[in-house]
Amino acid sequence: MSETSADTVEVILLKAGRTKIRYPAEVMTDDGTVVTVRAPWAADGVRDFGFVRFEPGDVFTEHYWRDRWYSVKEVRTSTGVLKGWYCDVTRPAVRNGATLTVEDLDLDLWCSADGGTILRLDEDEFAESGLATRDPEAASKALSALDELEHLARTGAPLSPPSPSPATGPATSDDH
After folding, report:
1. HSE (CB half, 13 Å, CA atoms) of 24?
2. In sequence order, what are the beta bridge partners of 157?
3. Residue 19, Cβ density class (10 Å: 0-12 exposed, 13-18 middle, ≥19 buried)
4. What is the bridge-based pairing of β-strands 99-112 and 94-96?
5. Which pLDDT score is estimated for 66?
6. Average pLDDT score over residue span 85-92
7. Is the pTM here over 0.70, yes or no?
8. Which of 89, 71, 83, 95 is nearest to 46 (CA)?
9. Residue 126 phi/psi, 5° resolution?
10. Contacts of 76 (CB under 8 A, 6+ apart)
11. Both ends of the chain: CA-CA distance in Å?
């Protein structure tokens, strides 16, 4: 059973020991294992990846696990149209009061709303990061997490728990 909370947190995404981005987000639920937050696109302007564009007005419902090596961001337009899921391979999330901190391990996965486009991303950055040498156990868990995400996406399994608000609708395998 989820505990619903109307508080806010500052999401802090670390990369290579430094803060990559930080932004406020509304806590939708925190059941002790999964923290779900909602936030608008936090970067300035449009980011066009070629396979998807993130832009002002987009809404991210972000799911962070304390016991998994990834987070999943369900991305919708300002009108609620599902664009897809952007998945970050990270160390398990840590919530400390008003902060939610995750460490990005470079690997990512994109799954379009229709499931037709599933892309493993940044494997070159991961290889260059040196994590495999510095922390082989973390590197192994990161690669396993990416494999798990890709398997979920390719089998049509939900990548994220149902969205807590009917305003954006649930993330079900029908969306995927």
Report:
1. 4
2. none
3. exposed
4. antiparallel
5. 98
6. 98
7. yes
8. 83
9. -60, -45
10. 58, 59, 60, 61, 82, 83, 168
11. 24
pLDDT at 97: 92
Residue 72 tokens read as 């999943």
Integer angstrom CA distances of residue 171 from 61, 73, 175: 10, 11, 6
Amino acid at 111: C
Token readout for 1 is 């059973």
What does the H/E/C string look like for the chain? CCCECCCEEEEEEEECCEEEEEEEEEEEEECCCEEEEEEECCCCCCEECCCCEECCCCEEEEEEECCCCEEEEEEECCCCCEEEEEEEEECCCEEECCEEEEEEEEEEEEEECCCCCEEEECHHHHHHHCHHHHCHHHHHHHHHHHHHHHHHHHHCCCCCCCCCCCCCCCCCCCCC
Tokens of 100: 């939610």
Query: Exposure of 84 by Cβ count < 10 A (0-12 exposed, 13-18 middle, 19+ buried)?
Result: buried
pLDDT (mean) for 66-78: 97
